[in-house]
Amino acid sequence: MKKESSILIEKISSSPEETKKFGSKLATNLKKGDVVALIGPLGSGKTCLVQGICAGLGVKEIVTSPSFVIINQYPGRYWVYHFDLYRLKNKKELVDLGYEEFFYGSGICIIEWAEKIKKLLPKKRIEISLGIISKSERRIKVKRC
């Protein structure tokens, strides 16, 4: 029987700053080897959340979306591997990059547009769905799979 994952946290964010603060708080619960899969439409706050998570993990660099290179790497309390799959043309690009080394390594992987590679994601992961409620409000749902 398949175990259903359950929502651990559901939050309404009223601003990018609040989303970043939530990400920073969420980072306190992350550990080596965690994979965080972000799912949501364009403009739903994925990058703001990543910026907050990275700040919470002690990353000092400016965190931007790696839209043109697929992955950025940041040193912090742990290495953070930030994937942005928005422009991913096919799964072969990710395979050629050696994604498994990152997904199953000792850093923390944060993947924007994770829905594009659902079958490649580790079964054990943290999945965060972001949705747009209004111009300023976002719904954030966090669950462990």
Describe this structure in words.
With 145 residues, the chain is an alpha/beta fold. The chain has a single domain, classed as P-loop containing nucleotide triphosphate hydrolases (Rossmann fold), CATH 3.40.50. Helix content is 24%, strand content 28%. It is built from 4 helices and 7 strands; from the N terminus they run βαβαββααβββ. It has helices spanning 16-27, 46-56, 91-97, 99-103, and strands spanning 6-13, 35-39, 71-74, 80-84, 108-112, 126-132, 138-144. Strands 1-7-6-2-5-4-3 form a 7-stranded mixed β-sheet, covered by helices on one side. Strand 3 (71-74) and strand 4 (80-84) form a beta hairpin.
| CATH topology name | Rossmann fold
Question: Strand tally, please?
Answer: 7
Helix segment tally: 4
Q: Based on helices, strands and strand pairing, what is the structural class?
A: alpha/beta
Distance between the termini: 15 Å
Provide the residue-averaged pLDDT.
Answer: 93
Major sheet details? 7 strands, mixed
Give the C-alpha Rg.
14 Å
Widest beta sheet: strand line-up: 1-7-6-2-5-4-3
Number of domains: 1
Strand content: 25-35%
CATH class wording: Alpha Beta
Brief overview, please?
By secondary structure, this protein is α/β, with parallel strands linked by helices. It has helices at 16-27, 46-56, 91-97, 99-103, and strands at 6-13, 35-39, 71-74, 80-84, 108-112, 126-132, 138-144. Helix content is 24%, strand content 28%.
